[in-house]
Amino acid sequence: MRVFNFAAGPAALPLEVLEQARNELIDWNGSGMSVMEVSHRSKAFVAAAEQAHHDLRELLAVPGNYKILFLQGGATGQFAFIPMNLARPESSADYLITGQWSKKAVGEARRYCKANVAADAGANYSTVPVQSALQFTDGAAYVHYTPNETIGGVEFNYVPQTGGVPLVADFSSTILSRPIDVSKFGLIYAGAQKNIGPSGLVVVIVRDDLIGKARPGTPSVFDYKAMADDNSMLNTPPTFSWYMAGLVFQWLKRQGGLAAIGDRNRLKAKKLYAAIDASTFYANPVEKQSRSWMNVPFTLAKPDLEKAFLQGAAKAGLTNLEGHRSVGGMRASIYNAMPSAGIDALISYMKEFERTNV
Ligand SMILES: *Cc1c(COP(=O)(O)O)cnc(C)c1O
Q1: Does 213 participate in catalysis according to the annotation?
Q2: Which of 61, 158, 180, 346 has the fewest CB atoms in 10 Å of its CB?
Q3: Is-catalytic flag, 170?
Q4: Is 346 helix (H, G, I), strand (E, B) or coil?
Q5: How far apart are CA 106 and CA 114, in angstroms?
Q6: Which ligand 1 atom sits nearest the alpha carbon of residue 170?
Q7: Is 194 a catalytic residue?
Q8: Residue in 77, 124, 131 with CA at minimum distance from that of residue 328
Q9: Is the shortest distance between the CB of 290 and ligand 1 below 6 Å?
Q10: Whose CA is closest to atom 8 on ligand 1?
Q11: Which domains does the chain have, with CATH numbers?
């Protein structure tokens, strides 16, 4: 039986996509082989990879002067590969800190360049800094931020203005959740396992002028130019993850694209926050204007009931609601693949749990 899976990542995939993958698992495209068993250089795989690339470009309306790369090493790999590709050891780079992922990103960047904190929202990371609070460094190679902090459930409701300095964004947990204006960014990256497909793949969308500047010593597979020149196939890519991402992109197009999925996501989040706000038993710690559409943390007025809450939820087919191990509480991750019915089921369970426990 399928459950409503609220995991933060690896996260739920659309059932339709899983069914399609299952149906063609052992005989893909009439080849008599699984997609996992064919050469990444074969005509059929190259065509599927190109289709995925094309569909992603169309979904996000990626302008022609950006390359889309399908890489490995996760979003965490990019924490290092970004400074290796965009900065020299003596360069400065600015980081906006709004939670644990942006902290990790600046920590890793410090190994490769002079990474400065241009803003730190602090105070338990329940909000984002306003534009006027951002203190940029003159001559910084880039500005990095995390539009959606997956653990804290904190999201920027604006795109920072950097005065022409390339803006680099870790979109891991919010990519494809709604339309964005790619032209405002120098580089966008996202680990696949939240809103794109299975883990093993990280998507990088990078403006042409930022390609070809990797410092000496950068491994070729992490050099944006080397990978762009070879259509992300300098070596064997994570073929199955790429194929699955392609199925997800097609599913998104069938949903009506990002405007349509964005409307659905906004309503899903609105409903869940409204239920939390209407109750005195549940609370969300994030300032209203910075609340994430994708990751909704919440606490119980009686923390000793958390275990019972989670056990009852699992029984009701609502899984992976425990908060990140570092913060505790609950967290419902409600990415594209979470249907509205999952939100409704969670809300009714929460109401029933509250009714029987206060
Ligand atoms: C999950 C996540 C990461 C880490 O991704 P990996 O693929 O495990 O390296 C980084 N940043 C954000 C915002 C995330 O949600």
Answers
A1: no
A2: 158
A3: yes
A4: helix
A5: 10
A6: 13
A7: yes
A8: 124
A9: no
A10: 74
A11: 15-254 (3.40.640.10), 256-357 (3.90.1150.10)
Q: Is ligand 1 within 6 A of the CB of residue 150?
A: yes
Nearest atom of ligand 1 to the alpha carbon of 77: 9
Choice among 67, 194, 223, 251 that is catalytic = 194
74 Cβ closer than 6 Å to some ligand 1 atom: yes
Decide if 148 contacts 292 (C-beta within 8 A). yes
Q: Checking phi first, is residue 356 left (phi over 0); if not, alpha (psi -120 to 50) or beta?
A: alpha
Q: pTM of the predicted model, to two decimals?
A: 0.98
CA of 74 to the centre of ligand 1 (A): 7
Per-residue pLDDT of the chain (358 residues; tens, 9 = 90+): 899 999 999 999 999 999 999 999 999 999 999 999 999 999 999 999 999 999 999 999 999 999 999 999 999 999 999 999 999 999 999 999 999 999 999 999 999 999 999 999 887 899 999 999 999 999 999 999 999 999 999 999 999 999 999 999 999 999 999 999 999 999 999 999 999 999 999 999 999 999 999 999 999 999 999 999 999 999 999 999 999 999 999 999 999 999 999 999 999 999 999 999 999 999 999 999 999 999 999 999 999 999 999 999 999 999 999 998 888 899 999 999 999 999 999 999 999 999 999 8
Residue 299, strand partner residues: 283
Alpha-helix runs per DSSP H in the chain: 15-23, 43-60, 74-86, 100-109, 224-229, 239-254, 257-277, 306-315, 340-357
**Which is catalytic among the residues 28, 101, 251, 293?**
101
Ligand 1 geometric centre to CA of 191 (Å) = 6
Which of 67, 94, 114, 170 is flagged as catalytic? 170
Tell me, what DSSP letter sits at residue 127? S
* CA separation for the pair 192, 175 (Å, rounded): 9
